[in-house]
Amino acid sequence: MPEQRSEVAVTKVLTSVRGRAGVDAAFAARVEPGARAMRILYVRGGLTKSLSGLTIASGAGLGGKSLVLGRPVRVDNYLAARGITHNYDHAVEKEQLRTVAAMPVRGDGAPRYVIYVGTRGDKALGDRWLDAMAPVVRELEQEIAVADEVERRLSALAADVHARRDPAVLTAGEMQEIAGELAELAGAVHDASLRQRLEALHDRLAPGHAQQPWRERPDLGLTPREVAVLEKVALGGTNAVVAEGLGLLPNTVKSYLKSAMRKLGASNRVQAIVEARNLGILP
After folding, report:
1. Measured between alpha carbons, how far is 256 from 195 in angstroms, rounded to an integer?
2. Where are the domains of the chain?
3. Is the pLDDT of residue 151 over 70?
4. What residues form DSSP beta bridges with 15?
């Protein structure tokens, strides 16, 4: 279940990155357990099916190198590039890709995916690929972390109830404690179907319980990164200070802030902070 939700997020990331970076193709490989290999499962902007289903060994090709190093890597001319193996040139050549970049995505302390972007012809990526990929990859890692934590907690709750066998042995205090944990999880989840599942469990355990903050907060479409930027700005941080604190570029912070202002209907950062506080998005 958490893997399914993560992969839905991955497909959205590919579409987003392709548009933001202005690249011809974007694709993602899921890392196998043990990180010895990965398999390309999702392709956006492909000319052929040469990449789909391709299994890549750890350390091989550009993505395999990114996987081993644990950081983004790029080559400006893939077929002539030094420093990488050329096991998969046949697939890259069929796609007519020239400049290619790869970035690993981590979850629960281990690599889970590698995201690629590529351009055809003489179009260079420059640095915009990193500007486009870094924030969405961080958001994806956050989504993966949330999905993993939700599944761990739900599994633990299910195991606890199953071990007791008789629901009657749960005290009222224990029921409220479990309901409170479900409420906390629901507030952290951005997946609508998962949130509904948590709400249903909460209502079964604590019918009529009034503390349901995730239902009271309006859905303005603010991303976790936009909220994080607003939180830093509310503390008085400049774009440069916020960028350093969140590991972003100042221009990226500016973009997040503009997007948050638009969603909140604010014309400046002060209005955005006031509106976010009024809505309960910020403390």
Report:
1. 25
2. 2-126, 143-216, 224-278
3. yes
4. none
